[in-house]
Design goal:
Elements (H helix, E strand, L loop, with lengths): L1 H12 L1 H10 L11 H11 L8 H22 L3 H20 L2 E2 L22 E8 L2 E8 L2 E8 L10 H12 L3 E6 L5 E9 L4 E8 L5 E8 H14 L37
Amino acid sequence: MKKITMFMSLLMAFSLTSQVDARKKSKKKKKATTSAKAQAAIKTLQGEFKFGMSKKQVQNLLIKDIKKRYAKIILKTRGDLQKDEQRAKMNKEIANIKSKTVTFNGQTTGWDTSIIDDQYAHKNYESMIPIIDLDKQKFFFFFNDQLYRIFITLPKDQYKGFNFAKFQSVIEGAYGKAEEIFMKGIGGDTELHHLLWKGTSGTELWAMDKTDVYGNFVLIVLDGNRRQKVAESRKDRGVKIPGAGELEVNPMVKVVTAGSGVNTKKKTDKKKKK
């Protein structure tokens, strides 16, 4: 979590210079290429978690991190009773790692109408480990018990007042120029779905706008080769993603059910493909 926090601070440092540079850049669309900055970002965001790891291996790394964090807290805590309280909190976090791991086997889950409802499908050997820490959320997605996607929400306060154009300017200052990936939504318009940077060995970094409904910009680090296998398996098995009628359609593009209590106000800065 510390690495992610430090990395988010770095993004903000690029804000002023990137907005100036953005006006100088060519408007011609470019294909994503591997750059040193993009690869460094992927490596930092991915951390110790290697694609292909099993749920058990990921759980063990997460538990190791929790124990390391609480060891420092307990060391600074005075009194046996207070130390025991911290140990109890640690054990609860560890228990949550195991109990909140989800296998998407067709049974309705609380995640089926959430910020990640377009990231998985039921009945396709898919599963997920969620890590919720105040306004920061991190989700590890698996196919056939192999890690292939890490989904990270960015803190709302850090980008308060940003539209996606401004966010794109800042993040491209940090990561380099991205390829803009467009997709046709249920409404018929072809809109910007995500920004794409390519890393080495098939790794990819995406940036998505989920502020209309959920209030967050998000980053996704994934194994592009495994993602393709997931997509092919979903198609072969005829399964659909809970939050969309077609493959990984951004909730900003799809129609939101009336009366759901979700803010359905449409962004005026949504980029359309011409």
